C-alpha cells in the first residue's frame, strides 16, 4: 500500500514538474519571438544613396528613411535641408539579429560611405549629411565605439574617422516619395550615376550577406 502511494505521489510530482518546464519553455519562446527584431540607426549622407544598400542585406526586415538628432518636431525635408533644425538624414533599420549581427551592419555602414569628411558626403554638404551612429542600447554603443577606435588606430582610411556616436533620439519618417527611392527610380540619371556604383560595390564586398 505504501509503495503504491509513493508511486502515485511520484507520478503526480513528475506531472507538475513537466507542466512547469513546459510553461517555462513556452514563456521563453514567446519572449524570443517578441524580441525577434532590433533597430539600428545610421546617418551616412543622403538617404537616397544608402537606403538601397541595407535593403539588400539578409536579415534586414525593413529600412525607413527619415530625420533624427534635431530640435524641431516633425520636420519636413525642406526644413532639414536648411541645416537649421539640427537633424541628420538617417536610416532606421529593423533587422533580425539571428540572421545579421549589429557588427555586420556596422561594417557595411563604415564601408559604404566616407566617415572622414565632417558634415559632407561627396557633393552633399551640411550637418544633415553628417556621419553618425544613433545607438539603441549600451551594447550597440560599445560596439560602435570599439569599431571606430580600431579604424582610427589602424589608420584604415588614411584620415581620422569623424563619425559621431550618440544615443537614439526621436526618429521622424521622411515623406513618402523618399521611401524605397532607388527601387522606384533606378533609371533616373542620379540613381545610375551616384547610387548604382554603391550597389555594385556592396555586391562585390558583401556578396555572401546579400538576399537572393
Automatic annotation (TrEMBL):
Keywords: Oxidoreductase, Signal
Domain of life: Bacteria
SUPFAM superfamilies attached to this UniProt entry: Peptide methionine sulfoxide reductase
InterPro entries in the cross-refs: Met_Sox_Rdtase_MsrA_dom, Met_Sox_Rdtase_MsrA_sf
Pfam family, one: PMSR
Catalytic activity: [thioredoxin]-disulfide + L-methionine + H2O = L-methionine (S)-S-oxide + [thioredoxin]-dithiol; L-methionyl-[protein] + [thioredoxin]-disulfide + H2O = L-methionyl-(S)-S-oxide-[protein] + [thioredoxin]-dithiol
First-level EC class: oxidoreductase
Protein family membership: Belongs to the MsrA Met sulfoxide reductase family.
Name of the protein in its database record: Peptide methionine sulfoxide reductase MsrA
Taxonomic source organism: Pedobacter psychrodurus
Amino acid at each position: 500500500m505504501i509503495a503504491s502511494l509513493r508511486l502515485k505521489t511520484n507520478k503526480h510530482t513528475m506531472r507538475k514538474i513537466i507542466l512547469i518546464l513546459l510553461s517555462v519553455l513556452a514563456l521563453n519562446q514567446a519572449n524570443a519571438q517578441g524580441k525577434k527584431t532590433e533597430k539600428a540607426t545610421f546617418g551616412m549622407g543622403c538617404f537616397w544613396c544608402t537606403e538601397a544598400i541595407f535593403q539588400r542585406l539578409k536579415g534586414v526586415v525593413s529600412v525607413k528613411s527619415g530625420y533624427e538628432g534635431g530640435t524641431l518636431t516633425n520636420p519636413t525635408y525642406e526644413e532639414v535641408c536648411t541645416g537649421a533644425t539640427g537633424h541628420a538624414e538617417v536610416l532606421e533599420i529593423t533587422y533580425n539579429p539571428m540572421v545579421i549581427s549589429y557588427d555586420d551592419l556596422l561594417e557595411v555602414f563604415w564601408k559604404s560611405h566616407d566617415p572622414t569628411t565632417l558634415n559632407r558626403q561627396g557633393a552633399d554638404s551640411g550637418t544633415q549629411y553628417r556621419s553618425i551612429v544613433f545607438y539603441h542600447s549600451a551594447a550597440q554603443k560599445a560596439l560602435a565605439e570599439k569599431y571606430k577606435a580600431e579604424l582610427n588606430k589602424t589608420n584604415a582610411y588614411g584620415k581620422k574617422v569623424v563619425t559621431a556616436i550618440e544615443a537614439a533620439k526621436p526618429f521622424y519618417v521622411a515623406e513618402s516619395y523618399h521611401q524605397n527611392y532607388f527601387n522606384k527610380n533606378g533609371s533616373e540619371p542620379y540613381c545610375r550615376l551616384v547610387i548604382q556604383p554603391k550597389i555594385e560595390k556592396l555586391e562585390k564586398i558583401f556578396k555572401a550577406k546579400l538576399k537572393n
